[in-house]
Amino acid sequence: MRVARKRRVVLYGSRGCGWCARERAFLDGKGVKYEYREVDNEKVAEELVRLTKGELATPVLRVGRKVVVGFDPGEIEKALG
Known about the structure:
About 40% of the residues lie in helices and about 20% in strands. It is α+β, with helices and mostly antiparallel strands and about 80 residues long. It has a domain at about 35-80. Strands 2-1-3-4 form a 4-stranded mixed sheet, sandwiched between helices. A hairpin with a 2-residue loop joins β3 and β4. It is globular and about 30 Å long. The two termini are about 15 Å apart.
């Protein structure tokens, strides 16, 4: 039997971002526990730029080592496993 690893789920978003709100609602609807990081904070923005290799776009979801840029339900489902 394979035991699923618990992976950290982090959603990076920004104030006033409609796609970020949709992604949060999607994750909430699936019962996913995640940490929300607001990129309006300079330190968090720098973290996001490193994570996305230079892109400063939101929303960005990190599931373990997987990264999904933008609200893409199919890719989110794959990342969550």
